[in-house]
Amino acid sequence: MTSSALRPAVPLIVIIIAGCIVAAIGNGVRTSFGLFTLPMTSDLGLSREGWGMAMAIQNLAWGIAQPFAGAFADRVGTARTVAAGAAVYALGVVLMAFSPNAGIMTLTGGVITGVGIAVCSFSVVMAAFGRAVPAEKRSLIFGVATAASSFGQFAFAPISQGFINAFGWQTALIYLGAMLLLIIPLSFALRGRSERTAGQVDMPFMQALSRAWGHGSYRLLVIGFFVCGFHLAFINVHMPAYLVQCGLSPEVGSWTIAVIGLFNVVGSLSAGYLGGRVPKQILLASIYFLRAVAIGLFMLFPVTEITAYTFAAAMGLLWLSTVPPTAGLVSVFFGPRYMGMLYGVAFFSHQLGSFMGVWLGGVAFDLTGHYDLVWYLGILLGLGSAALHLPINDRTAPAFALKPA
């Protein structure tokens, strides 16, 4: 069979709307965890490193589980995968409310929540979009999905802070867990699984992974994606506490995260649009370079509400704008057949970066009383990732193209 689309009974617009809402809810809850840093560490007596380790393990568990989640969705279908992931994700978030120490928090907020995020993440949703959308429109639709994910960050930051202020952090986590269950009925619209497409070889998944890793441009893409995770996770988890340390209110921290999400709606849509018109590797190199510049300028000026919101707006434009061209390059290299797994492998690298960003942020704060070392490291990594993307060749990997008869 050579069809690459979802079941025709599901209109494309329904697939896109349902997938975007799933992405918004899943990412919105996840990106609000940084707002819980101060109340939870204070009430539970956790060190900043202990809390950071739990969140770092969450990102690592997410990254480890992502290729398997993608492969599972490719094999058995997106709907069942996303629904199961939402249930696990909700369970992990609710159990966080009843975690009395760093060890239990690492299990609930780290391992369980991280696996749940992976199995219902927008990476799995984008694999569904990849097989349902014509190749020439994939970059734009990936941008739409990423923008929806970012809108969830914008919407859930004030919602989560409002829950914390009104009900306390424990009840807030329970409410967020309940909201995640809305993903389960939405997942029905994403039913279907990947099929072999015309012009591509068919092979076992492990053989596909081995051949993909032998493609030099894919290796560069995977390594560079590490830096994206480092930036995002460090800022998501530690930025609110950093701003409070600089004399600003917790509400400024929550609105800073919200502003990042709002501006990333624009950034993601722009990246999706540009990804179909300029070389994706050049777009990625530019994004990482501009991130380094934005962080450098933020470190040069005193931290005020104005500079915090300005930095948030700049980073928002560059936040998940790496995702559409990265996913687009994976699709160009290997086609949609193996995208769930092979984008999942790239995302594992992203989550290794997330682990390091969150964990090093906590370690740096406990050792020095500030986050400056990690901010400066973020600048260097941004410049390095920009350089890594320049040699990437945006053509189909030879090992995945059918040889002429």
From TrEMBL:
UniProt xrefs under InterPro entries: MFS, MFS_dom, MFS_trans_sf, Proton-linked_MCT
Transmembrane annotation, as ranges: 12-30, 50-69, 81-98, 104-128, 140-160, 172-190, 220-243, 255-275, 282-303, 309-334, 341-361, 373-392
Residue intervals of the Major facilitator superfamily (MFS) profile domain: 12-396
Pfam family, one: MFS_1
Zinc recorded as keyword: no
Organism lineage string: Bacteria, Pseudomonadati, Pseudomonadota, Alphaproteobacteria, Hyphomicrobiales
The name this protein goes by in its record: MFS transporter
Keyword Transmembrane appears in the UniProt entry: yes
Organism encoding this protein: Devosia neptuniae
Keywords attached to this entry: Membrane, Transmembrane, Transmembrane helix
